Amino acid sequence: MRLPRVPSSHTATIAFFVALLASALVLGPALAHVLELPNKIDLPREEYFIVQKAYRGWSQIAWMLAVQIIALAGAAILARAERGVMMLTLLALACVLAAQGLFWAYTYPANVATENWTVVPDNWDRLRWRWEYSHAAGAAFQLLGFCLLVLAVVMRERQ
Length: 159
Fold this sequence. Notes:
The protein is mainly alpha-helical and 159 residues long. Helix content is 77%, strand content 0%. α3 (61-78) packs antiparallel against α4 (83-113).
């Protein structure tokens, strides 16, 4: 099914606003992981597991991720009359989905293996590296996605 090309609308403006806001709110925690990594990566086991307690409840960010993904998809559809804007928005969405792919492939299994960092398995150090660096890579994708979205909005404003 092919969607008709329509000019930008007030609805598109709202979708881009929601996408920007949600992306900024998701980017904050993602960058927090990157900023803490150098201070945590070499901590002894006991200290590392204590510090990991700070992330209890961070799963609530998933709600904002859902809003981010829906808003990006909606903004891309509503921007279909502006090919460049639509493509940048779709690339931003692809970055967000790539970050999620990393989370589910590397971060989440480490959370499961450690029961959210309350159980110390024999390979805890390897899991720590996977957890920390998958978060860092995910943050890079989130940042790239945010930058692409900002470019889409700037391009949209120029048209």
